[in-house]
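Escalation from tier 1.

The customer reports that the assembly of two entities below gives different structure tokens on two consecutive runs. Tier 1 could not reproduce it. I'm attaching the input and our single run for tier 2 to review.
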Amino acid sequence: MSLHFAGIDIGSRTVKAVVINENREIVVNLQSDTGFDPINEAKNIISSLTYDNIMATGYGRNLFKISFNTSTVTEIKAHAKGSRFFFPDALNILDIGGQDSKTIALFNNGKVKKFEMNDRCAAGTGKFLEIMAKTLGYNIEEFGLNALKAKNNLNISSMCTVFAESEVTSLIAKGENRQEIARALHNSIIPRVVSMIKRILYDGDIVFTGGVAKNPCISYMLQKKLNCHIIIPEDPQMIGALGAALLIAEMKNKK
Amino acid sequence: MDNNYNAMWEGLGLDLKAHDTLLNFIENTYKDVYFSQRNRPEGMSYFDFVISEAHGLRIKELLDEKKQGRKIIGSFCVFVPEEIILAANATLVGLCAGAEFAIEEVEKFLPRNTCSLIKSSFGFQLGKVCPYIESADMVIGENTCDGKKKAYEILKILMKNFYVMDMPQMKSEHGKSLLQIEYDHLKNVVEKLTDFSITAESLIQAIKTVNAKRSAIHRLSDLRRVNPAPISGLDALLINQISFYDSPSRFTESVNKICDELEKRVQQKNGVFSEQTPRILISGCPQSLPNWKLPFIVETSGAVIVGEESCVGERCIRNLTDESGQTVDEMMNFIVDRYFNIDCAIFTPNPNRVDHIQEMVELYNADGVIHYGLQFCHPYLIESIPIEKELEKNRIPCLRIETDYSIEDTGQLKTRVEAFIEQLK
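Tier 1 run:
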């Protein structure tokens, strides 16, 4: 019987699980909200999977390790591995998840050369966009699309979720156009991401992973600002879990 | 603590309740961090004991010294020359602290964006929890960074007998003359305090005592070059931290004793971690007692720390003072020579530091460097970027970390450190 390898990525907003077979084909790809009990959610997800070995990544990886006695890998290495699966020549990775963002530069052989992570707060991450979408009454799925439709540029000066929210409230009160406010919010996080990119990435194409990669306005703005090609995997949210599955498969095959 | 020191602490004016809170915190943290380590050298039991009695027996010893007429002097920096203090018949204790305390009180005096090290010193003073501060007959502040020198203006009001020593900022002839003038002046001030004039005999004795302490730590550092590492970075850091408080001669003896044990371990290839463990050099801001945050994260994430390019570490003990001086003046010159070499980031420019880091990487067979910067410590944080570039140019992986004494960023730090260790494998 063929062996199966699972990767689970316990993020701050969602839990992702991927199962691959010995031929490195993806056989399962699942996602669910983390909620307030990440370990229970992780348990639920893996109870529905069949696998021989599993590896955990994401901010909940060490909790998972304690409960399930599995090996772990950081999100950084997992995203590097997962991105290379779809884009074997990738050298630059940008990952923006629920509560953190990172840039990863790779060596030609795929090993991590250098990485940067955002500081403690959620400024410029998925959580920020989620709260702002809610403030403006958009679903997260339609938030980016509407921002792209804006005709004029407004300015939002604050990147802090709390301050930006009050800025948005006063813009709404002033009667500003909702799409334009949405656009301004997207725009406000770009400088921070760009500086993380410029600090360590090479010139050239960037693979964009994590939930925020699903937002078309962010990738459009980055592309315009950096004058490079932003490559987005078909399902950017599963890259970390896929990376973990690939890494555990490699580890077991070596033995 | 076994003995009841309450009367002693009360006599020093400590806030017993707050002090208990602090001691409990230290005791619990120590247990979690230190006693969870495997295969510790037996010689560490002396240092465990010193920690358990840091506010007890050691303070009693200092108070006994005071009864004999000896003075206790506190300092916040490795630029305060212990030789001069000892030669004038006084004892030097380090007052830098490594834990958040009485933060609401501190922020009545200091802006929020002050580094943890400075805030912590204020917290220990304002919270009345540090028996070293309360035992000191004089406290020496030094004009190193902007944060410290401005904070000393306030500390001078809060502490009795606070003396400020000026510091050069450039490694020029002018700079050296300033250090010389300041050391001469400090000598006069200390002599006045102790009512004892430094003699050639007392000074050479003091130089030898301090050199012996440094040489013992050099011996320890040399043993850390070996793979597998015979001692953890946490334990070695602890020894460096204790060097600021303990009786110098007893400390020297205990370090030499543990080195004898470590030499045997090295022969037997008995390490605290396996030979495959990635080896890390920590560089940057000091890690004062009880700040074990970063080394604990590193050594529970699958790497071992083999050196500290830091004030609590190599920056403090690097060079010996020349022992060939015959007169007090000659010896004072040698002391100035020795201290003027310290590569603190308050100096501009400060090219020796990056050279030292690279020397240490080679010497201690480190696979990578973690630059430890305290938030709002501009001298080290600004230096960390060119240092990182220079190291990476020479293919030495480097991770820059910016943190403080709080624990809220532990998860983030752990991810960074783990990812860095993965990078080294």
